[in-house]
Write a structure and sequence with these properties.
Layout (H helix, E strand, L loop, with lengths): L9 H8 L7 E7 L2 E7 L2 E6 L2 E8 L3 H9 L1 E6 L7 H9 L15 E2 L5 E2 L5 E7 L5 E2 L3 E13 L8 H11 L1
Antiparallel strand pairs: 1-2, 1-5, 3-4, 4-10, 5-8, 6-7, 8-10, 9-10
């Protein structure tokens, strides 16, 4: 065990959790004609028949409120080859939808449920929350949702959170 850096404190455990690999997404929602979105890395497919995914969303976010109220969201998988990926992460991940309109001057398409789809995404998933499977985790909510409609592109590859973090370290 000598080759491992052992962590038991909160900061060390959080740092170790950065080694868990997962994608980097923009979660979008709409309520009352207002669009919002946020970066998300807590997402995974949980069943394929029927197709379902789960997402973990912080309760303080506007996107969370929108999903709770409407029961709908779109999960946009960022494309590793998108040269604007870091700008998209800054727009949707480093500011609050309560303070700014994240979609102002930002191109998007509207899905069948009226929720924004990012045209530069590698894939998107239009989803409906299955409220009976929603779990309150204290600071976050774990939403289980059916995938009602999806779109994928042949070119590109999904961007992982780990790749994004490494690219940001190289830029410093």
């Amino acid at each position: 065990m000598s080759q491992f850096k052992i962590a038991t404190d909160s900061a060390g455990l959080n740092q170790a959790l950065f080694e868990v690999t997962h994608g980097l997404y923009v979660l979008t929602a709409v309520r009352g004609g207002r669009n919002n979105g946020q970066c998300l890395d807590a997402a995974m497919q949980i069943t394929n028949a029927p197709p379902r995914i789960t997402i973990g969303v912080g309760k303080k976010s506007l996107t969370h409120e929108m999903i709770v109220e409407t029961g709908k969201f779109v999960l946009n998988a960022l494309d590793r080859e998108d040269l604007n990926a870091s700008e998209i992460v800054r727009r949707f991940g480093f500011q609050s939808g309560r303070d700014v309109d994240k979609f102002e001057d930002f191109p998007y398409e509207t899905g069948e449920n009226g929720i924004p789809i990012l045209p530069g995404a590698k894939a998107f998933y239009e989803c409906t929350v299955l409220r009976e499977f929603t779990v309150d985790l204290g600071t976050h909510t774990l939403f289980v949702a059916s995938v009602d409609r999806a779109g994928t592109k042949e070119d590109g590859d999904p961007l992982t959170y780990n790749e994004y973090r490494k690219s940001m370290r190289k830029r410093r």
